[in-house]
Amino acid sequence: MQFVILTGMSGAGKSTALKMMEDMGYFCVDNLPIPLFEKICQFFNESSGPKKMAFGIDIRSGEDLSEIEGMLERIKSMNCSYSILFLDCSDEVLVKRFKETRRQHPLSCGERLDKGIERERERLKFLRQEADYTIDTSRLLVRELKLEIEKIFLKNQKYTNLYITILSFGFKYGLPTDSDLVFDVRFLPNPYYVEELRAKTGLDAPVSEFVMNHIEAHTFVDKLEDMVKFLIPNYIIEGKTHLVVSIGCTGGKHRSVTLASELYARLKKQKDIGVKVEHRDIGKDNVIKSAELSM
Fold first, then answer.
1. What is the pLDDT of residues 12-30, one digit of tens each?
2. Among candidates 239, 233, 220, which has minimal Cα distance to 273?
3. CA-CA-CA-CA dihedral for 143, 148, 149, 153, to nearest 10
4. Are residues 163 and 274 in contact, defined by beta-carbon separation less than 8 angstroms?
5. pTM
């Protein structure tokens, strides 16, 4: 029997993840009273019923959360293997999600959202520490979360709990606030000053070829790739689940986009991590120019 406990922070995507696991053939139950877990596992273990189960538990279980550790020990004695998947998310993103849905946090008790999130994080701390898999959904799209869950429970691939976002940006629009590593590529020749390249982006072949035709660009990506690969196992040991590598140029349209795409192409070949690329400011120049023309 494959038994999965799906837990994590309110607003991190547990309901969505349960639906995904249901599509993968799991018998799913959300917010089941914890005292019933053991009985249900025993029933299905002794019957010809479903052999893959996923149970969603969270802060709504209240004081019953304290019973989880004892319950899991008893389940082990029944020869039921289980794994814990913890969905985490940054406080800033959680606040934004609650405000967008206009839902009240279960522990806010009429206070500010951040107070409720702080209480929940403290109460679920022991579960996060016990988790076999941790996915930070702060920057994940629904389809990306699905890929990560399938990697763990469908494809049985090695999972290291680390997801890397490679982010291009423009310094004139400010530093990305969630960056872990920031690199400045303004030392490279700027395609903006080449008339036929100005309106294009680093996703266009003429611009990427212009940037990568300089030996300094290749040297930069080689050294950055080497450093990131060195950091990956060390961050995993430290417990980090999400790494944001930000690469910036002046406007976030040419050089940073080219080099972020190049780094992504290299890192995505590694099967033991999740990786995605985002271009934060790639279209902002056009938006600003349109706004100015309409004034």
1. 999 999 999 998 888 888 8
2. 233
3. 140
4. yes
5. 0.70
